[in-house]
Amino acid sequence: DREEPQHFGAGPAQLPTKVLQQAAKDLVNFNEIGLGIGEISHRSKEATKVIDDAKLHLRQLMNIPDTHDIFFIQGGGTTGFSSIATNLETAYLGKTGEIAPAGYLVTGSWSQKAFEEAERLHIPSKIIFNSKDSDKNGKYGSIPDESLWEDKIKGHKFSYIYFCENETVHGVEWNSLPECLQNQDDIEVVADLSSDILSREIDVSQYGVIMAGAQKNIGLAGLTVYIIKKSILHNISKVSDDQLFEFGIPITPIATHYPTIVKNNSAYNTIPIFTLHVMDLVFQHLLEKGGVPAQQRENEQKSASLYSALDSHPDFYNLPVDKNCRSKMNVVFTLKNPELDSKFLEEASALKLTGLKGHRSVGGFRASIYNALSIEAVENLSKFIKDFAEKNA
Ligand code: PMP
């Protein structure tokens, strides 16, 4: 057992205590079979049930339509950056018989890294915009209005359009899918939801691929969830290695070749089944809580509480992100007087409010308020933020 943590770290992140207690038990003796869940074959009936349950529960939580498949691959979001680039370019080739560039909407360091990986792999790719270029401070912290960049997409051919729904380091989140990417049959929308999956309702039918590393909202590090349109899998399968060679597109390594993984129900090679079981326990926990709509209401309440505490002391705190794209998961702020930084951290930690130090590339502070953070923990942080400003102004 443990005291309920108040850990605001960006990830790996705090998980529901109830989930961890069940997982700990199942690690030793799963369903009274006399073995732990990590000690049995990934093709046993128990393991297959864990895979099927996780898929079923995620399908329920996100209303995933029949047009889409779900699968899991070892490795984090970074494995997603490379596997998306090669699989999706291959799919475009399978669909059209030609190649086209991938388009990246860059709003922070994770979408930037995804773009760099596509380029490194010699996947033809383009930046549609980099929000640093149009930002008043020349930093990540805004999303340019769609009218400024939609012409770069409309009427042009792209193998896919990629963006990161929530930039974990910079605290920049897309509120909604840009209009020019909605209901577009000829554009495959690909999104990184590593740090905001299951935090709010989305319309999965609009996405070609959703990718999310597990270690923030849904579990332990080690697995990445993919939700993919079945037609994309079909188009990848049509392409031969010779054809890829002819077009200069890298062949996807077998362990991340999406159709192979799906054909084998995510057990083509040894899936870390304990990690997946923890993820399924998180899914079940969320279903019991009332699903994504209930979680979304909680997240709105938590983020509103923190931002309003910070906004109430504008001379003391600096919020680098524009209001229309403030993240509801990662609240980034700095002190106007950085000499107080270490005092802020020390006093927070004396109140058992931990994990608040900002990313090394941004500095300042970041409060990550993923699904598992209680409203009470966030209210405690909001109160500390206000008290600290009042005492030190
Ligand atoms: N995408 C996002 C949005 C992230 O926050 C992270 C890291 N936390 C990654 C990708 C990379 O994930 P990993 O370290 O698991 O490769």
UniProtKB/TrEMBL annotation:
Record domain Aminotransferase class V: where: 8-381
One annotated GO biological process: L-serine biosynthetic process
A Pfam family per the record: Aminotran_5
Oxidoreductase is among the record's keywords: no
A GO-annotated cellular component: cytoplasm
Enzyme Commission number, as recorded: 2.6.1.52
Pathway: Amino-acid biosynthesis; L-serine biosynthesis; L-serine from 3-phospho-D-glycerate: step 2/3
GO molecular function, one term: O-phospho-L-serine:2-oxoglutarate aminotransferase activity
Reactions catalysed, as given in the entry: O-phospho-L-serine + 2-oxoglutarate = 3-phosphooxypyruvate + L-glutamate; 4-(phosphooxy)-L-threonine + 2-oxoglutarate = (R)-3-hydroxy-2-oxo-4-phosphooxybutanoate + L-glutamate
Name of the protein in question: Phosphoserine aminotransferase
